């Protein structure tokens, strides 16, 4: 196969190609060309060939195999800097494996004549099922848009490796790099280079230096969704209908008196700051005055929730625990549940006394020395595992149905995020939802979870947009939650 410059004597072949309505239905405005337009196209290309590369706006070539005309391939500038691919193949050549080698030859031309161009855009009619299937398997899907009243799907063909920038806190960076680069299409972005995928954890989620980095994909969604706000989650889910919700009351530190009547000296409550995480600001008490003092010490938190304390929880080796389930949520409103949960264990044996002793009542991952996971923690008790699984899926469905559309940040066209959903079991093995958090703070030493969690999100979400060049072992760590 060769790509050759278009000349005057190519007129009969190009007219035969472009005058075919079945070929042209998915090209340009979808209409066949006639003599006048074909001659104009040939003239423009001859004129372009005489220009210096820096002045050229289009490059089109005839595809030749065995000295026979097979079609046309090329690219032109759309707008100020977008280089758009176009290919026309004779009907007899379609579906015969001509596209890939013709594209490779075109890329060589691009690198010679326009070395600064690092990506091509392919714009495909939604009805062109064959081409969409080819493009979606190999190239980055950039969404749908309208051009001259025509709906098109757009793909990005990278002429370089995809670039990433990683800002981990709890994950092993070498593991992240290995997981990406074994796919054959990734490299770390160098200074000044455009970034295709930006990955952040922990405090980097709020690093203003990273806010304006333009990327095609980000592991972060806007944090205005109701269910990651402790003060909104409870009231949004119709408490009277949900047996997994604990009694909860919302208050502000300036109006604490509104919840004074809830304290009868017997009922135990846990107060949580709405913007707290990792156990910061928690207070367990059945005394109203103790809570007043606690709020004065923690005056940096304004909004709070008062949640009923589970007095008789299910215990593990006589210690209190909770399970964190991981949910992947994306900007297309899809929800996926990770197959493993991480267990956080209290450090000391449980007793319903000494509420200020966090070694008894606080369950944290950083202080859990054992590597405890769900469902492993339940052994072979399939009945209990199924009961928990069904309830967790029910909670996620409820949250999904109540949530408004998930929004990406404006600097990244596509996005997703891993959320942590914490649940506890009472002594009757009933699930109680504690909270849903977007700061999952996964301990680095929990390799069993962290490695699979990252591998799973790359396989599920990143590979969909940036298809690997190397063969990757299929993993299925996430299950989609359907309505």
Give a brief description.
Strand 16 and strand 17 (319-330) form a beta hairpin. 25% of the residues lie in helices and 29% in strands.
Walk me through the topology.
Layout: E1 2-5, H1 11-18, H2 21-24, H3 35-49, E2 58-65, E3 68-78, E4 82-89, H4 99-113, E5 119-124, H5 129-138, E6 140-147, E7 150-158, E8 162-167, H6 173-181, E9 186-188, E10 197-200, E11 215-218, H7 230-236, E12 248-252, E13 269-273, E14 283-285, H8 288-297, E15 303-308, E16 315-316, E17 319-330, E18 335-345, H9 358-361, E19 373-374, H10 382-402, E20 412-425, E21 431-437, H11 447-465, E22 478-480
Parallel strand pairs: 4-5, 8-9, 8-10, 10-11, 11-20
Antiparallel strand pairs: 1-2, 2-3, 3-4, 5-7, 6-7, 12-15, 13-14, 13-15, 16-17, 17-18, 17-20, 18-19, 18-22, 20-21
Helix pairs in contact: 1-3, 6-11
Write up what this structure looks like:
This protein has 11 helices and 22 strands. The chain has 483 residues and is an alpha+beta fold. The strands form 3 sheets. Strands 8, 9, 10, 11, 16, 17, 18, 19, 20, 21 and 22 form an 11-stranded mixed β-sheet that branches. A 7-stranded mixed β-sheet has the order 1-2-3-4-5-7-6, with helices on both faces. Strands 12-15-13-14 form a 4-stranded antiparallel β-sheet, sandwiched between helices. Strand 4, helix 4 and strand 5 form a beta-alpha-beta unit. The longest helix is centred in the C-terminal third of the chain and has 21 residues, at 382-402. It is elongated, with a radius of gyration of 29 Å.
